[in-house]
Design brief:
557 residues; 5 domains; Immunoglobulin-like; 42 strands; mainly beta; six-stranded mixed beta sheet
């Protein structure tokens, strides 16, 4: 069980920056302090709402007076029990999946970690791996499994309180022509424990999205699988690769579905839909359809967005299929949209660090040092699956350190597959940052006493509720809206508007309410007055008289 502890320094009654550490599997922790002759206040952060702090009480923190910097101050313990939330005691399942590398030449391994972070054992569970495409197939695993179409299913043993189990699945690339594409595997542990009573404000709806290729068209079906009717419409968005090409709202009764049909272009199409407020599943439903229609190179755009795997018992891993590659690298999901890697401020970022021993002898110890950007919140850190056992610690306020002791990693010249390793973790952005900000991350990898190998830098930009140009796809037109964010007006410019042709433009709020309906616009470049609109995010949709469409988003400042 992993718990993050926060150390707040109070010096002369003034609060300074927090320091962090992580407990080990047995609940022990150590935390260095910068100086003696000070009073430190230690508080803990529970890993989920199922656990309730019962000791210390009632202040919920420990006070430590540090006299000597070289002394050990023990007995600063914290105790948690199951929270009485209507269904206690209860198991809480956290699953993480990561693939080391997918190469056409040879099989690779997927590593899955399943942890019970609740207050009761998890029994009679199953682990299901859903292979979204035919790029890779499982060939063997560390546990018995049964096949079910494009899925494999494991029967899980009982997972005790605070216990983790690991599963390794060997996967092979089916066809070398898929090099450059992306293989996605959804990992689901079920049935999910119901650990809390739903919020009374939840309308009972639960949306899912499924996609289907029909040779020349792509269908996305949005279904309300919940127990209640939707209280208000929710927004859906359709992306073609990087580009938003359609949006609208959906309003469904319990059990009702709505199907949206689009022309198959060969591009990766992504349908995303907002979930109703207070939905207990904590998900952002989405579905992907790739390689449907005209033959095109395999898509690499899956990781541009969050993958709809926010529930703790679900994890989706999308890994590129490569030929040659940098064996010591870092990647992030979501990558973000466009070359600026735009993400939302609410997006959780999952980082994957891969390493390989390219030396002449076995590596006895591998250490990865990863300095977290100031815009990332260490208190939300979740450690994930890895290829080898490790010890993790947070040093100071933002340095994450993975230590693989006695790893005995063979050199690639002796054992190519065995020379590789991988580790993953996820983290959220700090709450309350300015709307526009940037963060980046890279790691230093040490093999024994050798100098560090520095990975590539991954970066993200947060420009909340902004968008760029909606690019043309088959059956659509290019539209450009600027400036974005807009003041009292913006300019909309359409590409290749025919002489005498007109179009209608509709503006919607972020919840899908129609606020403007402008008919029979004739100019290819037109100024739209939005001075009477409140500040916030808006969507626009355009329909020309010959049936072509464009869609996008803008912000009214």
């Amino acid at each position: 069980m992993v718990t993050i502890l926060v150390l707040d320094i109070k010096l002369f009654m003034q609060r300074l920056s927090p320091y962090y550490t992580i407990t080990d599997a047995d609940g022990f922790y150590t935390l260095g302090v910068p100086q003696a002759q000070n009073t430190y206040y230690i508080s803990s952060i529970p890993i989920n709402g199922e656990l309730e702090l019962t000791c210390p009480s009632p202040d919920n923190f420990r006070v430590v007076n540090i006299i000597d910097i070289d002394s050990v101050y023990s007995g600063n313990d914290f105790a948690y029990f199951g929270n009485d939330n209507g269904t206690s005691p209860c198991a809480v399942i956290q699953v993480s999946s990561v693939a080391s590398v997918h190469r056409a030449c040879c099989p690779g391994s997927r590593y899955i970690q399943i942890c019970n972070e609740g207050s009761a054992p998890y029994t009679n569970g199953t682990l299901t791996l859903n292979y979204w495409d035919n790029f890779i197939v499982p060939t063997s695993a560390s546990m018995p499994y049964t096949e079910n179409g494009n899925s494999i299913v494991f029967n899980l043993p009982t997972i005790g309180i605070g216990q983790c189990i690991d599963v390794e699945v060997v996967e092979a690339v089916v066809d070398s022509t898929t090099i450059g594409g992306t293989a996605c595997v959804e990992v689901v542990v079920g049935p999910p424990p119901a650990c809390s009573l739903p919020n009374n404000l939840w309308d009972g709806s639960n949306l899912i999205v499924t996609g289907n290729c029909n040779v020349t068209t792509v269908e996305f079906t949005i279904t309300n699988t919940g127990i209640g009717n939707m209280a208000q419409g929710e927004v859906y968005e359709l992306y073609s690769e990087n580009n938003l090409i359609d949006n609208g709202t959906v309003m469904l009764q319990a059990g009702q579905s709505q199907t949206l049909t689009y022309t198959a272009t060969g591009n990766l199409l992504t349908m995303r839909v907002n979930q109703s407020d207070y939905n207990p599943n904590n998900s952002n439903p989405c579905s992907f359809v790739a390689d449907c229609g005209p033959e095109m190179p395999p898509s690499q755009a899956y990781n541009l967005f969050t993958l709809g795997d926010e529930p703790d018992y679900v994890d989706v891993d999308c890994s590129p299929i490569v030929n040659s590659y940098d064996p010591n690298d870092k990647s992030a999901t979501p990558i973000g949209v466009g070359p600026q890697h735009f993400v939302s401020s609410t997006d959780e970022i999952q980082y994957k660090i891969r390493f390989q021993n390219l030396g002449n002898g076995a590596a006895n110890k591998v250490v990865i040092v990863d300095t977290l950007h100031a815009n990332l919140d260490p208190a939300t850190l979740q450690l994930g699956a890895s290829s080898h056992p490790y010890a993790a610690e947070l040093v100071g306020s933002n340095v994450l350190k993975f230590t693989f002791n006695n790893i005995e990693l063979p050199p690639a010249s002796v054992d190519e597959a065995g020379s590789m390793g991988v580790v993953t973790y996820s983290i959220k952005q700090r709450w309350g940052l300015p709307v526009n900000y940037y963060f980046e991350n890279r790691a230093h990898i040490y093999f024994d006493l050798n100098p560090a190998i520095i990975t590539n830098t991954v970066f993200h930009n947060v420009k909340e509720n902004t968008t760029g140009i909606t690019e043309s796809t088959a059956g659509n037109i290019l539209a450009e809206l600027y400036p974005n964010p807009a003041g009292n007006s913006f300019t909309i410019r359409l590409d290749a508007l025919k002489v005498g042709q007109g179009y209608n433009m509709q503006l919607f709020t972020s919840t899908g309410a129609l606020v403007r309906d402008i008919a029979n616009i004739k100019e290819a470049e037109n100024i739209v007055d939005v001075s009477n609109l409140a500040t916030g995010l808006y969507y626009y949709r355009i329909l020309t008289t010959d049936g072509k469409t464009a869609a996008g988003r803008f912000v009214k400042e």
